[in-house]
Write a structure and sequence with these properties.
With 310 residues, the protein is α/β, with parallel strands linked by helices. It has a domain of 118 residues: Rossmann fold, CATH 3.40.50. Helices cover 26% and strands 7% of the residues. It contains seven helices and five strands, in the order βαβααβαβααβα. Helix 1 packs across helix 7 and helix 5 runs antiparallel to helix 6. The longest helix has 23 residues. It is globular, with a radius of gyration of 34 Å. The two termini are 23 Å apart. The N terminus is likely disordered.
Length: 310
């Protein structure tokens, strides 16, 4: 099974505060250290005895609280610090514009409508679908899913459970080290994430194909979980070549996706439980990737016309 760091902030120094980034103004020897005096109002304002000029706008010092603009201040005398520039409230964040069709909350994906009785076989290459490709490690799920998504006539996304699980970099729970509570939790989290992504793609008329090693002896964790997260319209297909083919393909892998021969054989044996389940099974032992994708289209056409019970 599979499963940028910036420089640290400098330590806080005494005397540093929210305005610590401002450059302090130089002081001349002997200059007073207090704040700069407020300049007198221009001639003509009431109370100055210098005429009957215009009334100062609200907010000018001495007129009470207000929100109007403040007249420009007189130049600050040399030797006094410059007053800080006025602060403005931050602009509100832009509205969320991600996507062009909202995801229906919790809405499961419905089964594609069956074609009329008089119509021919449906064309899966031109139908919006959600497909779950099941198989053991080395079955070719990822290669077939990518090729199938690349060669459809409608927009199609490939969602790999292994890729999503490996988004976890630090603290990745590698199942090869033992299947435990941590690897189980990360598997379930990745599956919910993939299910949400599938529903979001489908809500925007983009097909998707997911791949996962789902075991028939764990229906609640496997198909049951996918059915809850995506919906009853998900079409499961099993990809199950012979054990010798799976071992050969696994040997060509590297990193944490390469399993031991014993583990591959054990997984393949458990996958054999899909025979008799009613799900469509493709034995791609003698098929290349394009040939397997063509068979997958044929299987999906039959599944649309007569949906499997699962």
């Amino acid at each position: 099974m599979q499963h940028a760091v910036g420089s640290p902030l400098p330590p806080h120094q005494p005397g540093q505060g929210p305005h610590a980034g401002w450059a302090p103004a130089a002081h001349h020897p002997g200059a007073p250290q207090g704040p700069a005096p407020v300049p007198p109002p221009p001639p003509g304002y009431p109370g100055t005895g210098a005429g009957t000029g215009p009334v100062p706008p609200p907010g000018y010092p001495g007129t009470g609280a207000g929100t109007g603009p403040v007249p420009p201040a007189a130049p600050v005398a040399p030797g006094h610090p410059q007053p800080p520039a006025p602060r403005h409230a931050p602009a509100p964040p832009p509205p969320d514009t991600t996507g062009h069709v909202p995801l229906p909350p919790g809405g499961p994906v419905a089964m594609p409508p069956a074609p009329p009785a008089t119509a021919g076989a449906p064309d899966p290459a031109a139908t919006t679908l959600a497909v779950l490709l099941i198989g053991p490690a080395g079955a070719g799920k990822t290669s077939v899913a990518k090729y199938w998504a690349d060669h459809r006539r409608v927009p199609t996304a490939h969602i790999s459970l292994d890729d999503v699980r490996e988004w976890v970099r630090s603290g990745f729970a590698d199942p090869q080290s033992g299947w435990n509570d941590h690897s189980e939790a990360q598997y379930r989290l990745a599956r919910r994430t993939c299910g949400f992504a599938a529903r979001n793609f489908l809500a925007n008329n983009i097909s998707c194909i997911l791949d996962d090693a789902v075991f028939p002896d764990r229906p609640v964790v496997g198909l049951g979980g996918w059915k809850r997260h995506v919906g009853p319209g998900l079409l499961p297909v099993v990809l199950l070549p012979g054990l010798d083919i799976v071992l050969e393909r696994n040997a060509e892998r590297s990193g944490n996706r390469r399993l031991s021969d014993e583990e591959v054989a054990r997984i393949h044996g458990r996958m054999a439980g899909w025979y008799g389940s009613g799900l469509p099974i493709i034995d791609n032992s003698q098929l290349d990737v394009p040939g397997t994708a063509r068979i997958l289209d044929d299987v999906l056409a039959r599944a649309i016309a007569s949906p499997p019970t699962w």
